[in-house]
Each structure stands twice: as structure tokens, then as C-alpha cells.
Known about the structure:
Layout: E1 6-8, H1 15-23, H2 37-50, E2 54-59, E3 64-69, E4 92-98, H3 107-115, E5 121-125, E6 132-137, E7 143-149, H4 151-155, H5 159-169, E8 183-189, H6 195-203, E9 207-214, H7 227-240, E10 244-247, H8 253-260, E11 266-269, H9 270-281, H10 285-299, H11 305-313, H12 331-362, E12 366-371, H13 377-388, E13 409-414, E14 420-425, H14 435-440, H15 442-449, E15 453-459, H16 465-478, E16 486-491, H17 502-505, E17 510-512, H18 521-531, E18 537-543, H19 548-557, E19 559-566, E20 569-576, H20 578-586, E21 590-592
Parallel strand pairs: 1-3, 4-5, 8-9, 8-10, 10-11, 12-14, 12-15, 15-16, 16-17
Antiparallel strand pairs: 2-3, 2-4, 5-6, 6-7, 13-14, 18-20, 18-21, 19-20
Helix pairs in contact: 6-9, 9-10, 10-12
Amino acid sequence: xxxxxxxxxxxxxxxxxxxxxxxxxxxxxxxxxxxxxxxxxxxxxxxxxxxxxxxxxxxxxxxxxxxxxxxxxxxxxxxxxxxxxxxxxxxxxxxxxxxxxxxxxxxxxxxxxxxxxxxxxxxxxxxxxxxxxxxxxxxxxxxxxxxxxxxxxxxxxxxxxxxxxxxxxxxxxxxxxxxxxxxxxxxxxxxxxxxxxxxxxxxxxxxxxxxxxxxxxxxxxxxxxxxxxxxxxxxxxxxxxxxxxxxxxxxxxxxxxxxxxxxxxxxxxxxxxxxxxxxxxxxxxxxxxxxxxxxxxxxxxxxxxxxxxxxxxxxxxxxxxxxxxxxxxxxxxxxxxxxxxxxxxxxxxxxxxxxxxxxxxxxxxxxxxxxxxxxxxxxxxxxxxxxxxxxxxxxxxxxxxxxxxxxxxxxxxxxxxxxxxxxxxxxxxxxxxxxxxxxxxxxxxxxxxxxxxxxxxxxxxxxxxxxxxxxxxxxxxxxxxxxxxxxxxxxxxxxxxxxxxxxxxxxxxxxxxxxxxxxxxxxxxxxxxxxxxxxxxxxxxxxxxxxxxxxxxxxxxxxxxxxxxxxxxxxxxxxxxxxxxxxxxxxxxxxxxxxxxxxxx
Length: 601
Ligand SMILES: Nc1nc2c(ncn2[C@@H]2O[C@H](COP(=O)(O)OP(=O)(O)OP(=O)(O)O)[C@@H](O)[C@H]2O)c(=O)[nH]1
Ligand SMILES: [Mg+2]
């Protein structure tokens, strides 16, 4: 019987945290779930708070057998002590957290899995959105890992089936693909590699079973690849048993019909794929509406033939709307749904307009992060908010997936020794960004257009960094904000071996940072300060108690360095815009320009 004590390194942990760790024993598991989502989230939250790994060991009935803080794998594991013969699995699985955002198993994790013959080993990244992986043994000496995948998919992973099969015969090779995953075959024309399309397909949850490209300048009008290549494709589709064909360019209805004739597959294009990913990621009302509208608009002229029939039956990539709903397939319904979405979107936009004018009143400069998808915008934003932010709305994610961020998020950042800014994270850009997407996201991108300063984040380690920069600049031009002040921020320099040749890239101003380690952040701040127009001045005021509303305004719109309750009023030292200084001057409240509080006499 377990004694419900917590093992491991509790030294220096606050009592409140120790109690939360002890409470983990109370989470009831369900037999089918790999772990209870509530348990996983609480473990991740504790790790975020204390920076230490948390591990729980769970038996096959879903009961918790051990809770460990710190480096779990080096702690003696009583949970697995009652193991059966060495040829069998222990009947215990380990679920543990990794501080930060790393959702993959370490070498140590794999080795613990083997040494303890665990049913499986689960890793949850402590940083939201808590992506993770799971690994199973494939023989006494080997293991294989599935993931990273979303927290949601991970918690519901069908571990039992896997484990029962393994237990019977220790150990058959595990199924490499889940039944639910679609097998995608990629096609494209021209010189561009299909790597990015593959990444997109993976992001959408498919496995890629093959690719074929044709070196021609532009697609054939009727057959896309040309009729010779089409035969090759038909064969390849059958050999690989693909069920989804994805083209790297937008397809016309007749191309879709032709390709569908080659094999029993569903045919979609790059735009549909991107919109599908968007549909899975959007989380605000506006984001969802924007995606749905773009999907409907893109779909309407393409509702033909087999695709229609297949999508009516089955679902799958390209047929999913925001919120996992199946997209409408009936033309008439589609039109009326479009009108409804447009109407609702209008309302949401009016609300956004109001927010924007409120922000204008607050007079804080807006700094927008833009960049190619996966460049590290959210990670940078996350880092800045954690270190210098004002607590408030969270859910910024840094996920190694394309389009992790869809909805614009605004956060307040207090630059050390400087001013306060609003930081906006935005949707990532991509090559051949579908027109439907640019249109649908115009409202979101307007946030960028309205920004006082744009930070263009570049993944300096990406081999196509320079093309990606061009794409981003092109989109900025399309949404008419290429005239805004732009600072280029080369990110991920922690992974760089040599220096960046800034001269040859011809961008200025530019800074180099690592959103992961925080390297270069001060230079970034200096650069931001330099780019933003000087704002207000630092003064000290003494506001009488019967004018408390002024103090509230100062706090909302200025940058307060110090404040103090005095017998005759509230003394505040702050950087204020002229607009706020004038009324104070009229009333004679200004006690000094600058200076420190407490030095008066
Ligand atoms: N090594 C290293 N990795 C980083 C750094 N910044 C971000 N990453 C990783 O790059 C991946 C993408 O980061 P995100 O912050 O999600 O990128 P994003 O630009 O917000 O992407 P989208 O929202 O998809 O447009 C994640 O796996 C991050 O952990 C960095 O400075 N160094
Ligand atoms: Mg992001």
C-alpha cells in the first residue's frame, strides 16, 4: 500500500507548494486515460512555479503509486519495486514534467524507461501549452517515442492497447502510426522544396508517406503535374496507400477533379491545409470567425466531385472547421453561414476598434512582433512578459509547430529604466500566404499597421532565413505597413555557431537575441527606446486626497517610479505625457521636475 508521502528534493520549497505536491495524490485517474488532464496541468503548474521536475507513477488501474519532486529518475522508486519477472513490463507508467517548453524525452528518460521496464514514459512540457511525448519499450534494450503532440492528444493517447500488445510477447514493434492519422502524399511544381509543405502536413496531424515534384515553371492548367507525371503519381499513391493528396499550390476545381481520378484519395491544396491548421489553432471568437470565413470563401467555388462526397462522410484535414466542427458542404447553407459569420465578425471588429481607441487614450506605444512562422515571436513575447510584464491575461505559447499563434495578444511590458510599452504577438507569416488568409486576417494585421514600432523576428538559424525575411517584408507591404519603423531581430543566436553577416543582409537597425536564454534583450530594449519617439517627462506631483481620480489616471497612462502617502496628499514620481502634466501644472501640484520622493523638506 502506498503511504501517500512525497519523495525527492523538497528542500527550499514554499509550504504552499509542498501542499500542492502532496495534493497530487488526490487526483483520481481513469483507466483509459494516459493521465488525467487536471493532474497533468497541476504538475506542469507546480514545475513552472518551482523549476523542478514532478513525477508521478501510475498503475494500470489508474492509481497513483508514487509522487516525486526533483530529478525523479535518480530517486529510488518504490512504485516499481514489486515488479514481476524481468521479461515483463512493470505495470507502472511514469508521467513527469520538464521545466520550460521541451516536450521531448531526454536520454535519461529513455534509460529509466528501460531500466524500470515501465509501461511507458510520459513527458509534459511545463510551459503552456504543455505539449508532450510518450515513449514505449520496443525490446529490452530499445524504446521509441511518439510526439511531440498536443497536451490534449497526449492525455488521451491509447496507451493500453500498446502496452497489452507489448506485455504479451515482449516485445513486438509498436505501430508507428496511429490509425487516425491521415497518410498524406505531397506534390509540387518548380524548384521549391516540399520541406515546408511537409512541416505543414505534420502540423495538421498527418503522416507523410511520399512526395513527388515536377520541375516546370508553373502547373499545367488541367493536370497540375502534366499527364506523364500523373501516371507516376497514380502508381505512387497506390503503393504508399495514401489517403490524402496535398498540392503545394492553390488548385482549380478541374485540377482537383483530375487528381481525384488518379486514386481513391482526397485532394486538397496548400491553402486548404493552412486554413485547416488555422481552424485547429484559433482560440478567440474573432480568430475562429476569421478562419471560418476564409474557409467558406475558399471552399465555395471548389465544392465539386468526390471531395464533396468524401468530406461529407469522413472529415479529416481540410474539412474541419474551428472547434472541430465539420465544415458545411451544402452550397445554400454555406452562403447563409457566410452571411452570419460576416455579421458577427463586424460586431467583434467594432469591439476591437473600441479597444484600440482606448489604447490610444492610454497613450502607450504599441510594439508589434511579426515574422515567419516558428521564428520565435511567442517565445520572445513570453520571455519579456515573464521578466518585465504586468500580470494579466496569459496563454502565450511557444510551440515548435507552425502557426502556434493565431490571435493577437497584447501585453504590457515595463522596460527597465525606461517606458512602458504594449507588445503585440501576431500570426506567423509564410511563403505563398494564401490571399484568403491575408484578407481574413486583415483585422488582426491592422494591429500591426497601427503599431508604433514593428519588430521583425527572424530565425537566424534557419537555412532559408533570408527568403523568409523577404516573404515577411512582402506581406508587410501588402498590408501597407512597410513604411513603419522596423527593427530586425535575429533570434535563436544560442544555436548559432558563427556570426551573422548583417552587412550582406542589408538590414538596419538590427539586434541579435536569444528568446530562450535572454541574451541580447538589453540591446533590444535600447533599440526600442531609440526608435520610439521621446514621450513625456519625469516629474513629481503631490495630488490632494480629494482628487484621487488623477492618481488613477497617472497610474493608467504614465509610468510610475514611486509613490507615497503624505499628510497632504499622494506624492507620485512618474513619466507623464504632456496631456497629464498640464492640468497638474495649472493646479500647482507639481513639486519638482524629476528628483526622488522623500527628499523634499
Ligand atoms: N534555441 C532556440 N529556440 C528558440 C528560440 N526562440 C524560440 N525557439 C523555439 O522555436 C520554436 C518556435 O517558437 P515560437 O515562439 O512558437 O514561434 P512563433 O514565431 O511564435 O511561431 P508561430 O506562432 O507559429 O508563428 C519553439 O520550439 C521555440 O522553443 C531561441 O532563442 N533559441
Ligand atoms: Mg507564435
